[in-house]
Design brief:
- By secondary structure, this protein is α+β, with helices and mostly antiparallel strands.
- It has a single domain, classed as 60s Ribosomal Protein L30, Chain: A.
- A five-stranded mixed sheet has the order 1-2-5-3-4.
- The longest helix has 23 residues.
């Protein structure tokens, strides 16, 4: 078993079959050694949202962190489809997080730690990345969190 696949198993992470895009875009684009993965919302493997609604209103920071982690799992699922073997990931370069936020919610970075922490748990130092977190008024399906990623691959 590949090293990263073994690490996922240790963490109890099962990669779902990625959904097909619902609009006019592709799930990922590779150019040279850079792989851009489109934003993934917080679907659980059963297709239901891990958290629905606004942070700072109906959704707690802890539920938001679980949602961000689910987004990161979905990024990894798309990444595996793109490169076939997660051991080909040289570096997690950047994550971009979109937090469905109530107007006064300012803890988006705490929510995004759910995604960032998973990348470091899975890839170690290669999982440390640059990051942007933005509070938004709405997300598709009223998802609490969406995360996109940029990866260097071999």
């Amino acid at each position: 078993m590949a090293k990263i696949e073994a690490r996922l198993a240790e963490l109890g992470v099962v990669l779902p079959t990625p959904p097909t895009p619902v609009a006019n875009y592709v799930p990922f684009v590779r150019t040279g050694s850079m792989l851009f993965v489109s934003g993934q919302i917080c679907h659980a493997p059963d297709g239901k949202l891990v958290a629905k609604g606004k942070l700072g209103d109906a959704v707690s920071i802890e539920d938001g962190q679980r949602a961000a982690r689910a987004c990161a799992v979905n990024l990894l699922a798309q990444l595996k489809v793109a490169v076939g073997d997660l051991d080909k990931v040289v570096r997690v370069v950047r994550l971009g997080g979109f937090i469905n936020s109530a107007p006064t919610f300012v803890d988006g970075p705490k929510v995004m730690n759910g995604a960032s922490d998973l990348m470091v748990e899975v890839f170690g130092d290669k999982g440390r990345h640059a990051r942007t977190t933005v509070g938004v008024a709405a997300l598709p399906a009223d998802a609490a969190v969406e995360v996109e990623g940029l990866f260097e691959v071999s």
